[in-house]
Each structure stands twice: as structure tokens, then as C-alpha cells.
């Protein structure tokens, strides 16, 4: 990869958001916020639908930040927090989200190049949308280069 080329191009982030919006619509989730961060935990792209409640804005961004910082899904971190081996982790880094809806985005070389955070539906809906995007990310990345 060219060192001057971003590991997570804006075009790939936009396509990932479009994929998330389409999947949310297919699941009939009306109000969602979708955040994409790069590998350095910097917000790269964000969108919210008209019916999105205001709290979902912060939650979507925090889910993406949590997923990229730990290169793990927020739901899997949640399973390890509480009384688990990562007890109290949700209180670190200014507040992490340890329930579903955040997924790391990995390139074809297995490198975490960013993350997606989705909020606005139920935890199961947010998780389904984020995983859908995660599972299609490599193909999305290839079509934008």
C-alpha cells in the first residue's frame, strides 16, 4: 500500500454507511446513527437518519471508538466485563460501550483499519447492522480502490 494513501479511504467509509443504511431499512429500523472511525480512533464519517434520537449520536461514536481501540466487537467486550476478566473496563477511556453495535473493520491483510458504530435500534438490531457491514467490508474496500 502506498504510505501516502489512507488505510481507510473516505470512499470506503461512505460505502459502509450506505450499506448500514440499506440494512437498517431492510430490518425496518427507523432511526439510526452510524459512525465510522479510522485506525487512530478519529471520526471519519457520520450520518444519522431523520428519526434518530439524540442519544444515539454519542452512542454510535462511542461504539466505533470502543471497537477500534480494542479491535473487538463491543458485544464481545461486554461479555468479558461486568463480573468477568475485564471488570470495570467500560469506565476506562472516558467511557466505553460494552454492548452490541460496534465492530472493527479489517482489511484483506487482517489489519484493523477502523470501526463502525451503530445506534438507534435495539441492541440486537444495532449488532446485526454493524456485523452486516463488518462482514462486507473487505469487498467494500476493494471496490473503492
UniProtKB/TrEMBL annotation:
Its protein name is Heme-binding protein
- InterPro entries annotated for this entry? GlcG_carb_metab_protein (IPR052517), PduO/GlcC-like (IPR005624), PduO/GlcC-like_sf (IPR038084)
Gene3D superfamilies this protein is in? Haem-degrading domain
User: Which Pfam families does the annotation name?
Assistant: HbpS-like
Amino acid at each position: 500500500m502506498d504510505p501516502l494513501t489512507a488505510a481507510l479511504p473516505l470512499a470506503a467509509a461512505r460505502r459502509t454507511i450506505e450499506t448500514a443504511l440499506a440494512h437498517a431499512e431492510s430490518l425496518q429500523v427507523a432511526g439510526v446513527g452510524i459512525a465510522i472511525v479510522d485506525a487512530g480512533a478519529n471520526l471519519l464519517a457520520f450520518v444519522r437518519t431523520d428519526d434518530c434520537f439524540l442519544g444515539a449520536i454519542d452512542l454510535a461514536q462511542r461504539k466505533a471508538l470502543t471497537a477500534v481501540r480494542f479491535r473487538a466487537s463491543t458485544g464481545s467486550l461486554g461479555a468479558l466485563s461486568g463480573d468477568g476478566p475485564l471488570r470495570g473496563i467500560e469506565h476506562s477511556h472516558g467511557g466505553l460501550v460494552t454492548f452490541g453495535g460496534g465492530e472493527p473493520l479489517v482489511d484483506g491483510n487482517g489489519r484493523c483499519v477502523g470501526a463502525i458504530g451503530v445506534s438507534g435500534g435495539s441492541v440486537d438490531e444495532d449488532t446485526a447492522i454493524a456485523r452486516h457491514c463488518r462482514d462486507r467490508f473487505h469487498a467494500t474496500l476493494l471496490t473503492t480502490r
